[in-house]
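A protein record pairs a chain with a discrete description of its three-dimensional fold. The following entry can be read in just this way.
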Amino acid sequence: MVTTDFKSQLPIIDISPLLAKCDDPNMAEDAGVAQVVRKLDSACRDVGFFYVIGHGISKDLINKVKEMTHQFFQLPYEEKLKIKITPAGGYRGYQRIGVNFTSGKQDMHEAIDCYREFKEGKYGDIGKVLEGPNQWPGNPQEYKDLMEEYIKLCTDLSRNILRGISLALGGSPYEFEGKMLRDPFWVMRIIGYPGVNQEDVIGCGAHTDYGLLTLINQDDDKTALQVKNVDGDWIPAIPIPGSFICNIGDMLTILTNGVYESTLHKVINNSPKYRVCVAFFYETNFDAEVEPLHVFKEKYPRKFKSQVAKRVVYGQHLINKVQATFANLVENS
């Protein structure tokens, strides 16, 4: 096993050997893949967060996504409010600073929220809340095309990381790709944190993520993301240029029968500079009934006895969270 000290820093995993073999059903027999799998297992068990390098998405694209996001957030409020988020618009679009709440407390950030688009009525009453087109800014002009390309690449990358995680748990590479992920949903939060001139302004309060995997693309020159380790200490997630920070979410905790647990994290921007973070959330099917997968219940039978183990419909879980987050949206918008 990999013996890394996760008390003060997050593990760094070069996944290029996994990506080179990701379409080979016998990938587990490859020595490079086996090494990546061991590192993934260690990271997911011990901390739930890790840096991903060797992921194949160009540094230029990663940086361009952040640069254009900065350009959007620098616009006057009147311009940004042209794509204002509303409950009637499926909670998609721009929210001004202070609209978002985490655990009932106001967060100091602004954001654009996007979700995978789907046909009206596809998910019945549950899906109605999120129905509608994404609202992409018209300025910068190429932003929509850039982000749609980026989302496609993040979707593929997430699927391949999950194949490694499935091997790490002792399954086949494809355990998550049955009925749970035939039609994976995704969520994108494009977030801007204003620079501050005082300490410990909560950009985003402590929370776990709702879905399977998150890929975080953060500014290279400011440290703001903090991750809670097993000792209860907060570890700073210092940026590594060109990397993603990957973490596991609540649905993966359930699917793995509690072997991998989602980890609390928060954002405190103590920098006077404006900070941008683009978070891509890879999810199960919207209407998936999420419960521990049979293969992992057999391998880890007694691990998961909490009430979380009950079956959860992912879309309902997401909507409950969205409506709690934006409970004050009407008053503040």
Summary: The chain has a mean pLDDT of 91. The longest strand covers residues 275-285. The chain has one domain: 12-331. The longest helix spans residues 143-168.
